[in-house]
Amino acid sequence: TFFPLHPALLVSVPRPEYLDIFDVDMMRRPDESNKMQHHTAFYSSDQLVVRRGQEFQVNITFNRPYDPARDKIAVEFVIGELSRFNTISVWGGSIIEFDKTVTMGITPTANCIVGKYHMYVAVSTPFGIRRTRKDHSRDLYILFNPWVADDAVFLDDEPEREECVMSEMGLIFHGSSDDVSERNWNYGQFNYGILDACLYIMDRAEMPITDRGDPIKISRKASAMLNSRDDEGVLVGSWSGDYTYGVAPTSWTGSTDILLGYASSKMPVCYAQCWVYAAVFNTFLRCLGIPSRVVTNFYSAHDNDGNLKTDIILDDNGRIDRNLTRDSIWNYHCWNECFMSRPDLPPGFGGWQVVDATPQETSDGMYRCGPASVKAIKHGQICFPFDAAFVFAEVNSDVVFYSRSRDGTMEPVKVNRTHVGRMVLTKTPGEMTRRDITDQYKFSEGSAEERTVLEKAEEYGCKREKSNPPPADVDLVLPTLEVSVGDDFSFSLELVNRSDQQRTVDAYISGSVVFYTGVTSSEFLFMTPTVEIEPNKSVKELVEVQSKSYMKQLVEQANLHFIVTGKVKETGQIVTAMKVPGGRLHSHGRTRDHAAQIQILQVSWLCVAQFQLIWHHIRTPKINNILSNNSNFPGFSLIAGGSSLTWTEFFIPLRAGSTRVIATLDCPSLRQVLGQATITIEP
């Protein structure tokens, strides 16, 4: 049995003639070389945080000068439970300087396990090996390293790398392709406790330690663990509109509360929708050092049949049969891309990979998706793992309208090949603007390359609609609409007869409040006009909508969705048109710093609607270089139409820099009330 000379450092009685360990300095302060050179100075951790494949240094002080000719020392790194993990690998090491204090350089292999290690120092004596006792000051975290070419996540693009690894603030796009909105999000990957929370997710998943150096396995496992559908993962999804037992998805402003809440409670956090899943997943990936970004696909197909068709079923009168129409088109859907090599695929299919934590369909028995190579999706290689076929359908499905007769037979009456995957956006590196990356997912609509890709996808079993129904000689034209919440409005439906004979159309005009997932919440308008049109003429049918008809039906992320279908009496042809008005059903707050006083933040909300709002909470996230703590201001009050609410928050700057402050107002009657402002803290 050995006893320490220095508390928590030595495990034996020192003998002057033999080398003995006196102190170990991990050089773990943010201003020291290790964290600076490894791009980890922003991590709010008392421990050393470094990246694999790159040298870091430690100082070891002995009781006498180190003599390389006769002294033998060793440095050991242990991860996980030693009794369960016995794999040994050799890392690079060298002695840089030595006297009584030895400066040792250590280089973890570029494919080593990512996680929390403990370092031991051992010396050889004639009486055996003398080894330091375990002490938390010698814990260290080793992360992926996108700056090192030998690492699987190496990204040789400095602006992209800075954005997709180091940036703590992001933009997430939503709305519709012709009316894009943006949501600021604080990823907070460097905030205190977030790194431990991310490692806990892998522990909770019982992921083998030996798999934790592989970004493919980590991203796939995390895709399942970020949702709670089958594994008690991080987030509970809800699209019901009832968030009584949690936080409305539109109220979240950052990932910190979610990840820390999950790690502390060991219970899934309520609630999330696609952009929350993607944002928290982004924090997880960036925190571990895997380059990642949030991507939004506008008009994203959710195909339940495993084909390349989104089927909309019409009854024999031309009205949508909502009981038989199971496929849906989301106004937008958010997922993640992460950057890594793919040694499991043929050369050329590494780089950006799609991963998606939103629980839509199962993959290998669990609700998860990816990683799927973006290049494989673009080139129709949908047989490649993982889930490339599902993502391919999200951006390439045809929208097929079927007319179902009374005997159950169905006939395609219209095929729209350009509606789905209309635009794919992500944030521009280094700027608070959007970047169109649609061309990374698909070739131009109608091009020879697109036809080749679709033919290749069919070879792998994806079915497309081959028929090409002749166009009807009557067109329905819905105008572009801009609608402000709470307003009455009207529009004219134009019916155009392109034939030389009179046409009579039995039309169905339906107006619904729909979730952004394309699922109908409620129908507020239904009209059945019969319209006669002279040859080569057009007729306009006026449609008037009163706000009281839709206001009580509003849900968060709501859109008004108008569908017009009609049957031409003379020909039996079915005609259809759809339109989502611009101007989403929400209002904006404005967040600003007050009179340039750094310690005070003032948030003002102006209710532009002509009805009163009931608000419950105001939220702002912890921002690593701005706020000293999260703010969640509970309350219950009425905001009359045209009036305002002002709230003041005090905060302590933690470091110099520029960032964005986000605030949301949790208001059940009108979700997605948010604002943001840029704040700069001088050194």
Automatic annotation (TrEMBL):
Signal peptide: none annotated. Gene3D superfamilies: Immunoglobulins, Transglutaminase-like. GO terms for molecular function: metal ion binding; protein-glutamine gamma-glutamyltransferase activity. Coiled coil: none annotated. GO terms for biological process: blood coagulation, fibrin clot formation; nervous system development. InterPro entries: Ig-like_fold, Ig_E-set, Papain-like_cys_pep_sf, Transglutaminase, Transglutaminase-like, Transglutaminase-like_sf, Transglutaminase_animal, Transglutaminase_C. This is protein-glutamine gamma-glutamyltransferase. The lineage of its organism: Eukaryota, Metazoa, Chordata, Craniata, Vertebrata. The gene is f13a1b.
